[in-house]
Amino acid sequence: MKIVITAGPTREKIDPVRYISNNSSGRMGYALATAALDLGHDVTLISGPVAIPVPEKANLIKVVSAAEMAQAVRDHAPDADIVIMCAAVADYRPAHPWDSKLKKMPGKLVLELERTEDILGTLGKNKRPGQMLIGFAAETDDLEANALGKLERKNLDWIAANLVSDGFGTDTNRITLYHRDGKKIPLPSGDKLSVARSMLHEVLP
Ligand code: C5P
Fold this sequence. Notes:
Layout: E1 2-7, E2 12-15, E3 18-20, H1 27-38, E4 42-47, E5 59-62, H2 66-76, E6 82-85, E7 92-94, E8 113-115, H3 119-125, E9 132-139, H4 143-153, E10 158-163, H5 164-167, E11 172-173, E12 176-179, E13 184-186, E14 190-191, H6 192-203
Parallel strand pairs: 1-4, 1-6, 4-5, 6-9, 9-10
Antiparallel strand pairs: 2-3, 7-8, 10-12, 11-14, 12-13
Cytidine-5'-monophosphate (C5P) is lined by residues 66, 85, 87, 89, 91, 116-120, 135-137, 150.
């Protein structure tokens, strides 16, 4: 099968040397890519800026911003059998990034932010029959309610939910899978590669 996986954070430019980002390490998405390649699938890995080794044989597409990630997903998702959005995509970006380095000035600086595209939401709206869409929900609070809300709103087949404290920027993860038909599957916690293997075991047809 052709599997598209997104991973890592995005960076949203403030000026030529500054950006807004988050603590995503990319390790969960890279582990999913490794696990899928080990099963013999064709893997396109669309990755934000990370500092970890690239799984051999993955078709790696490097991106920086949410807009670049959205474009790469538009280019590769249409003929994918499965899309797994593991990336921690920024929800907001500076509305007017500066072309030159911002100087210190007296008083407060107000940064105006605008929404980025909800990549997975757009995919959900245009889902091809037979295509499987899988999202991630990393939450600090109300994990199950937030995950189920995203599953529904984004028209997903599965959502993989984890507490930020259990998996964000760490080596290990604890995930619960929720299917659109109501099934709930808590996966054994462990290192991200073993969690990725259990996850694919549950979701692959
Ligand atoms: O940010 P949020 O918690 O809504 O993320 C849930 C899912 O949506 C994740 O799979 C994430 O990769 C995806 N997402 C996206 N585009 C965004 C924000 C999130 O595809 N702009």
